[in-house]
Design brief:
This protein is mainly beta and 203 residues long. It has one helix and 16 strands. The strands form four sheets. Strands 7-9-10-12-14-16 form a six-stranded parallel sheet, with no helix packed on it. It has a four-stranded mixed sheet with strand order 4-5-6-8, with no helix packed on it. A hairpin with a 2-residue loop joins strand 5 (62-67) and strand 6 (70-75). It starts with a strand and ends with a strand. The relative contact order is 0.10.
Length: 203
């Protein structure tokens, strides 16, 4: 029997008669729960579960939402790579003040947070193993960054032009730091690297 149904419509479609006999779980877009609960759907499905829309994918198993200045990534696995200005939240970058990344995230994509100049802080989960090129390029609001022990590589220009970045701590597992990773970080006066073997450096 039918156990689940996914509806992408933000306005509940009208139902005629008994459409679902098995009372399936109904997956609906984030923010539409109240509308669906007040509709004909409430009596025909077993329960509702809100889920991000396909447009909010930022990895094969990653989704994003932006609310009250916080960009929240949920799920697991690797983030998609982007080109300059192509991240799906790029046009809202001036509103992004906080970033929530999930345990289970393994890779921060290229250009992911490019020019998110209002971003004030980041916590990189211990599941991340690699930071892509230009991932945090020109994030002027950042003042300190800690790269966890899980990270093995930092891409080129990853933190370039973070002009107020003053302190960086790099964990034990980093083996390579790309070209210009911290170039033009004009206020950077403290950097600590905990790796026992010196990482290879770009230019």
């Amino acid at each position: 029997s039918l156990t689940s149904v996914t509806v992408e419509a933000t306005t509940p479609p009208s139902l005629e008669g008994d459409v679902f006999k098995s009372k399936p779980t109904c997956y609906i877009p984030v923010g539409t729960l109240a509308a669906y609960q007040a509709s004909d759907w409430a009596s025909q499905v077993g329960s509702f579960v809100e889920h991000p829309s396909p447009e909010n994918k930022c990895g094969d198993n990653l989704y994003w939402t932006l609310s009250n200045g916080t960009l929240t990534i949920t799920g697991s696995g690797a983030m998609y790579d982007y080109s300059s200005g192509a991240a799906p939240w790029y046009n809202e970058r001036s509103n992004i003040k906080n970033l929530s990344l999930p345990e289970g995230l393994t890779y921060i994509g290229q250009y992911a947070f490019y020019y998110c100049s209002a971003l004030q802080s980041i916590t990189i989960p211990n599941s991340v193993t690699s930071i892509g090129n230009r991932a945090f390029y020109d994030c002027d609001g950042l003042t300190q960054v800690t790269i966890p022990n899980s990270v093995t590589s930092i891409g080129s220009n990853a933190f370039r032009d973070c002009s107020y970045l003053a302190s960086v701590v790099i964990g034990t597992s980093v083996t390579s730091i790309g070209n210009d990773a911290f170039y033009y970080c004009s206020n950077l006066d403290y950097i600590r690297i905990d790796a026992q073997t010196p990482p290879t450096l770009g230019n």
